[in-house]
């Protein structure tokens, strides 16, 4: 295999230092899966590096409480066996040049379909060209999700993971070319559309009031009219899917595997979790790191990603068991844990992955949960049925849905969503000059607040209302409502509202709902809702809101100085034109 | 005793609701001591309220590991016995009207001196008038510090605690009038100055480079030239004293009392602590909540308090034992602590008091320490010799010096410094309309940063310098240096510097010093120092700096929207005129 090919392969695998891919950021499109390896690994010596996230760990004693699926195990063993050979430059697995098409046989579609994820060899096609990617699977930077495509067309997946639409990736694929589809199976030179798998075909129905930002995968925000309730109804809870909604079958049979630091695995069914551990209810707000991204775009410059308004945030009561209790049962010493454990990685059934610090995972006051119910009902499929993680106080991207696996590790998750997407950089950094390793993955989020409603109240109506009693206002007024939230369990202690674009400030009333749902010993995992009435004569130009948390951090006035090209954590003061008020 | 007198007494004791005293805020002057009771207590019924902070707790079993001083115990018993009687309106202890001077005897100074803190009765004088305040001592809102004055003149203390210079306080004192000083002991109608105690007479000498903001008590900041080293030398460490520096005698004999939730007391000498507990070294930054208050004043409006520039912050390596280990030894169950314990109160030998949450006090990763050494030497007297608390990540006001006592309680400290001084309110709140209970005591602090040095480097010098190698700059440049720090152990992840008043931003280099002093499992308790070289042609108007911590919180652009009348937590972007650069 030539040097040029190797340079390409390394670049694709994210191993070529700063020249890694920028992100293809069409709103609604998805970015690449895990890159598998960080650039800094290169210096440590390629020969020791295996892209699959687990293979660097020691020998794997496997203790199955329940029986683990054979597919996963098989692939991992395959990975360990093939990886070092594949990564050695002199290895003959790679052809020096793709053969000319006419040197290869014609292949029937039915034969391709046999080389699926249940088989020992994996074929895919693109256009009318067929590839045996068996040897590539363990090296795929995105991990096992590639198995979704085998036995069929790779194209629907590359239309989602648009990073593949790139010459370097095409070149890699060509190395595995084995022949063309038999023309008898083609219609207009292509495989029939009915045979092309639709990854989203089993996605659930959604509530029609959700504001859809992308449909495949589904990303839809809660409308402002539904943000005024402390608990968001499950069907109104914003949906943030990175991929399709996996169909995991019966809830009680779903299995969670805990992989300990020595490679040992312990497996629990959801029924095991329910039966063997104390159940907790935690009311917590989840917020997408892109909430209010549209405001950063409007207030500063274009940003990459879904253009959320104020509704990529919702609150629910989550029921489940504590991760720390399950880890203790699986053999982790919570009082004197192994010092090699730094992170808890989570892997979802659809291939999504992320991690949090091990300290947070086992913190007595961290309330990290394995959740099977939401607002008193089984988890809806869009929110992780039958099992998800809840990491309160952290960006929602860490609360992995459709949870298959927890891996205790010295390293954080190598996924795209840990290593790239969910980070912020300085205003001067752009996608073409970013060094992704310069910023840590977003975990706890900064202070945030928004105005969700502005109503004008006539003086004559006001006199008889609750507001008159609360505020003592008898003149024509405007009532503003909204939410405020901070990460890390830091309580919102004050919400300042300006009726004149920041010249003067009033303190909003913090509504006491959250007192019903948590005791004094629990951190503030849920948003605060607030309300303020201001007489009409005080209004000028824009309403603004900013909140303050218990560490006395607050929000930036503008977006320019905190602009980041990914548009994450857009928490500049929320400004709403005074003219936007509706009559009551 | 008449209704008017009672109204006055309640007002003085801080019991009259919103009409409590505003703070007398001459820079350099001190505010009142503890108010002893919060307004909300009034509603709970005066009859059950005893101002001394411990008397509300249950029976006090006292288990002395070492022997406690008899004075403290005696006063507390006295307090318990007298309190309910004194607070009952019909109690005859209070004279309805002060008697005319000529009805009372003349008293020799020598006799007054006999009624000192060792005696069972306590006398003071003011001018030539003598008062027996024995009955008032247990009710003194400021606590036992009043005993400093007994046997002598009250005036030097009232010159410090200026809240006493008030008609209501004079009226209370007059109720205890017992006679006039014998004219034979007066010089020009007053007691000789040599007999008037100077509370600061035993204060230590200080380094002449410290920038003094008030001398009695000593408040002095570290000069910018000394803020460039990661560890601040002890003699350059900023000094923030609320009162005098107590002279506690031999270090090894100094005793710390732990008061448990049931009133039981356990006492340790410093020697006990050294001998019986594992020693730790923690490198941590301490910052006064008033650091950069002068910038808020200059950037917005006048603020109350010492007008610190950027030097009310320093970093040291602190040696001592963990508070959690000592509490465990004293009988606290760290795994299943008594749910009534919410706070750990700290009492200093000079009467200062403050508290932190019990969770922080026992957090395995909280690193709250009982400290007896600083930078490898015994604690200097200005920094708490022989024993202080270190509460890393919290405002320095909680790291109580000259520690006498730790009280585990359901309530936070009732001191002035917990209930009033160290809080922030909205920009619209002023001293005349503040409700002190509306804001929580400052504990963890927000993100902060400052520029400590600006040097111009000529192109010809630059070519041979480290900076040329680091930055690749060969043209005439400016090198900026500074610090950045966030509370809560949240690491500084980025420092943005603008050479043109916020139009464009550069990322400063974060210097790696802190990697030498803490391991991965420890939170970021120390500041980050940073450096940036900018070519001269990029400069325009003002340099600005803002830092970002790991929760992606940052600093406000201006001071106006975050103005608070106490001038606390002034963390607006630090701006320095471009013209301020010095030639190198």
List keywords for this structure.
15% helix; disordered N terminus; 3 domains; Immunoglobulin-like; alpha+beta; 584 residues; 23% strand; homodimer; Sulfite Oxidase, Chain A, domain 2; Flavocytochrome B2, Chain A, domain 1; five-stranded mixed sheet
Number of helices of chain A: 12
Q: What characteristic shape of chain A results from the CA principal axes?
A: globular
Low-confidence stretches of chain A: 1-96
Largest interface: A-B, 48 and 47 residues
CATH class of the largest domain in chain A: Alpha Beta
Instruction: Write the CATH architecture name of the largest domain in chain A.
Output: Alpha-Beta Complex
Largest sheet of chain A: 5 strands, mixed
The CATH topology of the largest domain in chain A corresponds to Sulfite Oxidase, Chain A, domain 2
| Number of domain modules of chain A | 3
Taking all Cα atoms into account, the compactness measure Rg of chain A is: 26 Å
CATH superfamily of the largest domain in chain A: Oxidoreductase, molybdopterin-binding domain
Helix content of chain A: 10-25%
Oligomer: homodimer
How far the N terminus sits from the C terminus of chain A, by CA atoms, comes to: 73 Å
Average pLDDT for all residues of chain A: 81
Pfam families (chains A, B): Cyt-b5, Mo-co_dimer, Oxidored_molyb
EC number (chains A, B): 1.7.1.3
InterPro entries (chains A, B): Cyt_B5-like_heme/steroid-bd (IPR001199), Cyt_B5-like_heme/steroid_sf (IPR036400), Ig_E-set (IPR014756), MoCF_OxRdtse_dimer (IPR005066), Mopterin_OxRdtase_euk (IPR008335), OxRdtase_Mopterin-bd_dom (IPR000572), OxRdtase_Mopterin-bd_sf (IPR036374)
Catalytic activity (chains A, B): nitrite + NADP(+) + H2O = nitrate + NADPH + H(+)
């Amino acid at each position: 295999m030539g040097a040029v090919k190797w340079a390409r392969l390394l670049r694709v695998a994210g191993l070529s230092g700063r020249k890694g891919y920028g992100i293809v950021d069409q709103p609604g499109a998805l970015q690449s899966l895990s890159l598998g390896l960080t650039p800094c690994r290169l210096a440590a010596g390629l020969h020791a590096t295996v892209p699959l996230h687990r293979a660097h760990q020691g020998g794997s004693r496997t203790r199955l409480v329940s029986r683990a699926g054979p597919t996963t195990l098989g692939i991992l063993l395959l990975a360990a066996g093939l990886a070092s050979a594949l990564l050695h430059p002199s290895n003959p697995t790679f052809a020096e040049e793709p053969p000319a098409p006419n040197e290869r046989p014609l292949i029937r579609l039915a034969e391709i379909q046999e080389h699926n994820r249940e088989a020992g060899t994996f074929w895919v096609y693109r256009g009318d060209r067929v590839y045996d990617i068996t040897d590539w699977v363990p090296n795929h930077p995105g991990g096992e999700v590639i198995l979704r495509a085998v036995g069929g067309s790779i194209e629907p997946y590359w239309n989602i993971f648009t990073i593949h639409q790139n010459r370097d990736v095409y070149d890699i694929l060509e190395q595995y070319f084995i022949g063309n589809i038999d023309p008898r199976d083609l219609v207009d030179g292509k495989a029939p559309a009915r045979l092309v798998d639709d990854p989203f075909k089993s996605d659930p129905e959604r509530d029609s009031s959700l504001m859809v930002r992308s449909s495949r995968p589904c990303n839809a925000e809660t409308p402002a009219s539904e943000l005024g309730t402390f608990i968001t109804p499950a069907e109104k809870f914003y949906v943030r899917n990175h991929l399709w909604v996996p169909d995991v079958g019966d809830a009680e049979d779903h299995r969670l595997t805990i992989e300990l630091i020595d490679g040992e695995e312990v497996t629990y069914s959801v029924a095991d979790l329910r039966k063997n551990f104390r159940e907790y209810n935690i009311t917590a707000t989840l917020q997408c790191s892109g909430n209010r991204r549209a405001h950063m775009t409007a207030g500063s410059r274009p940003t990459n990603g879904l253009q959320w308004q104020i509704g990529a945030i919702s609150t629910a009561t989550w029921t489940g068991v504590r991760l720390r209790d399950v880890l203790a049962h699986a053999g982790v010493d919570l009082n004197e844990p192994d010092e090699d454990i730094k992170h808890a990685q989570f892997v979802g059934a659809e291939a999504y992955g992320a991690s949090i610090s091990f300290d947070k995972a086992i913190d007595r006051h961290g309330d990290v949960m394995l959740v099977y119910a939401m607002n008193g009902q089984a988890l809806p499929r869009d929110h992780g049925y039958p099992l998800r993680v809840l990491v309160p106080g952290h960006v929602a991207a860490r609360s992995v849905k459709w949870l298959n696996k927890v891996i205790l590790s010295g390293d954080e998750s190598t996924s795209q969503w840990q290593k790239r997407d969910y980070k912020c950089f300085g205003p001067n950094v752009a996608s073409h000059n970013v060094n992704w390793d310069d910023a840590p993955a977003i975990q706890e989020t900064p202070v945030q607040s928004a105005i969700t409603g502005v109503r004008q109240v006539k003086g004559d109506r006001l006199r008889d209302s609750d507001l008159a009693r609360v505020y003592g206002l008898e003149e024509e007024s405007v009532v503003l409502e909204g939410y405020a939230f901070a990460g890390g369990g830091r309580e919102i202690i004050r919400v300042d509202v300006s009726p004149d674009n920041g010249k003067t400030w009033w303190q909003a009333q913090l509504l006491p709902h959250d007192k019903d749902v948590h005791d004094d010993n629990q951190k503030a995992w849920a948003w605060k809702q607030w309300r303020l009435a201001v007489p009409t004569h005080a209004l000028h130009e824009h309403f603004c809101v900013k909140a303050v948390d218990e560490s006395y951090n607050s929000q930036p006035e503008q977006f320019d100085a905190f602009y980041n090209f990914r548009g994450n954590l857009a928490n500049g003061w929320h400004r709403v034109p005074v003219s936007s008020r509706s009559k009551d």
